[in-house]
Design goal:
This protein is α+β, with helices and mostly antiparallel strands. It is built from 8 helices and 15 strands. It is 29% helix and 22% strand. Strands 4-3-5-6-7-8-9-10 form an 8-stranded mixed sheet, sandwiched between helices. It has a 5-stranded mixed sheet with strand order 12-11-13-15-14, with helices on both faces. A two-stranded antiparallel ribbon has the order 1-2. The structure holds 6-O-phosphono-alpha-D-fructofuranose. 6-O-phosphono-alpha-D-fructofuranose is lined by residues 118-119, 121, 211, 246-248, 274-275.
Length: 338
């Protein structure tokens, strides 16, 4: 039997990093672990139980809600509501924040923001999808209903963030500000086992991930960067490799392990970028910085952007620091005409 260090043991072991949390954060991460197992089961057999395919309703993004989107949202919400530490959640699948009545009058001090099933349009074609979560201390008085300010906090105030990738294997990757750690799910024993301790992204890489179908309307600096990636310069390992799965968690995870950059700039359809600041860009930026990478909107650090709306979108450039720096240089050198 290989030397197993389970997620549960690891969380307890690292608890001393958070003496003030007295196990509350651990309990919260355990509820996410539980929901991940439940959703993983459903994702793994989506094709069989007709749980894939559009639910019919639309979320606030105007996107068809896939049945699994709704299922994952409900499972993560109920797993968190079952714990006394969480007073409310914000979700891509919820128009407004959701207060947990049970937590009111309790000592619940955390709020969670999540994309319960990112990349869900890939579900019915059997491509990897993921869950993304972000955890903050509430700033409104404990015991009272949450306020929108609890959720519109700067990304640099996050106390934990992570994702679950439902891929060829299912992994849970998270940070609490002490490095990034990955756990691979072993369904035969029903536990997440430590498989990637202290992940560090290569400073440079040769993989770029972008939907080049939007090329015509990209900012000029992005177009220049893509031509830079594609130029034949063997001594600099160029042309780079283009890899785009259409599922942020999958592209992000591969690039973090191998080195690379994910780009979602402004496009004709999404003039502010497509990805949502609060529950996609902020958690992924916290993770990548903890792994030694960088994340920006092309001009400023994602984690320093003051949120103004729950579902606001930002342009997103994330990955190996040298590559993010390069695209920022091109954006500065070739500014778009206002
Ligand atoms: P496009 C999925 O909807 C998502 O939010 C990310 O997971 C993914 O990287 C991106 O959008 C794909 O968007 O416009 O290229 O299909």
């Amino acid at each position: 039997m290989y030397n197993i260090r389970t997620l549960g043991e690891f969380i307890i072991e690292k608890q001393q990093d958070y003496p003030h949390a007295s196990g509350e954060l651990s309990s919260l991460l355990s509820s996410i672990r539980l929901a991940a197992k439940i959703v993983n089961k459903a994702v793994n057999k989506a094709g069989l139980v007709n749980i894939a395919g559009a639910f019919g309703s639309e979320n606030i993004q105007g996107e068809q809600q896939q049945k699994l989107d709704v299922y994952a949202n409900e499972k993560f919400k109920s797993a968190m509501a079952a714990r006394d530490q969480v007073c409310g959640v914000a979700s891509e699948e919820e128009n407004d924040v959701v207060d947990f009545e049970k937590a009111l009058g309790r000592n619940a001090k955390y709020v969670i923001l999540m994309d319960p099933l990112d990349g869900s349009s890939n579900i019915d074609v059997n491509v990897s999808v993921g869950t993304i979560f972000s955890i903050y201390h509430r700033i409104s008085p404990i015991g009272k209903p949450t306020t929108i300010e609890d959720f519109l906090q700067l990304g640099n105030k996050q106390i934990a963030a992570g994702y679950i990738i439902y891929g060829s294997s299912t992994m849970l990757v998270y940070t609490t500000g002490n490095g990034v750690h990955g756990f691979t799910y072993d369904p035969s024993i029903g536990v997440f086992c430590l498989s990637h301790e202290s992940i560090i992204i290569p400073q440079n890489g040769n993989i770029y991930s972008i939907n080049e179908g939007n090329y015509i309307k990209f900012p000029l600096g992005v177009k220049k960067y893509l031509k830079y990636c594609q130029k034949y310069v063997p001594d600099e390992n160029r042309p780079y490799i283009s890899r785009y799965i259409g599922s942020l968690v999958s592209d992000f995870h591969r690039n973090m392990l191998k080195g690379g950059i994910y780009l979602y700039p402004s496009t004709a359809v999404y003039p502010n970028g497509k990805l949502r600041l609060l529950y996609e860009c902020n958690p992924m930026s916290f993770i990548i910085e903890q792994a030694g990478g960088t994340a920006s909107d092309g001009r400023q650090r994602i984690l320093d952007i003051q949120p103004t709306e729950l579902h606001q979108r930002v342009p997103f450039f994330v990955g190996s620091p040298n590559m993010v720096d390069k695209v920022e240089t091109f954006l500065k050198q070739f500014p778009d005409q206002e």
